[in-house]
Amino acid sequence: TPSKNPTRTDVILPMREPYMSQIVSGAKTHEFRKYALKPTIQRIWFYRAAPHSSIEYVCEIEPARTRNPGDEPLEEIGLGNREFNTRHKDWEGYGFAYKILSVYQLEKVITLEMLKGEYGMGGAPRGLVYLPEGMGEIDWRGSKKLLPE
Length: 149
Fold this sequence. Notes:
The protein is α+β, with helices and mostly antiparallel strands. The mean pLDDT is 92. It has helices spanning 19-25, 81-86, 112-117, and strands spanning 10-15, 30-33, 43-48, 54-61, 96-111, 129-130, 144-147. A hairpin with a 5-residue loop joins strand 3 and strand 4. It starts with 9 loop residues before the first strand and ends with a strand. Strands 1, 2, 3, 4, 5, 6 and 7 form a seven-stranded mixed sheet that branches. It comes from Tothia fuscella. This is ASCH domain-containing protein.
């Protein structure tokens, strides 16, 4: 069944500070990207770059919001939402906004060594990577739910 195939519903995206902390705290309510994720994507597993070099958080998302004529603007609570709506120069090209519905902190951090050894990844994710099949077995729902409380 499609729901059992995590490679179609989950992606890994690299994330740097301070943005990861802003998502975890709830200050940042949307993840902005220059490209559309497939509409089947329901979750982002954020890979934190060095010095963390690990996946600690899984976020459920809504399908992309865009700024095409006739689109509803984002609620202007949340870092970057107003800039997205008003097409601020720093948001040039970031045409896709993914509302973050929840943030889960994994009980067991997935290290870069695990990604390479257990899940067959060649190295640290530098861009969008579909979740390797074996990672679909990870019980992210059993992790600590940070948002919404």
